[in-house]
Amino acid sequence: MPLRWTTVRMDQLEHAVRRGLRVALSRRGTEYIVVAVRIGSVGPQEALIGRLPMTGEELPFLLNEIDQFQVLD
Known about the structure:
Elements: H1 7-19, E1 22-27, E2 30-42, E3 45-51, E4 58-62, E5 66-72
Antiparallel strand pairs: 1-2, 1-5, 2-3, 3-4
């Protein structure tokens, strides 16, 4: 079930982007740990753009597809 995006959760995600923090998230049963790069649009939808620490590749994570997330310090 996709996450319900409250203002508190969006603030947490925006904080992670501003500080370049790691975010642990789950999407369709797969867990990722990425460095938050930016929040932007992918087509008509908002997405977290995260960089994989091992490869440096940037991946888009549509907000309506994220099941859960946690900002890591």
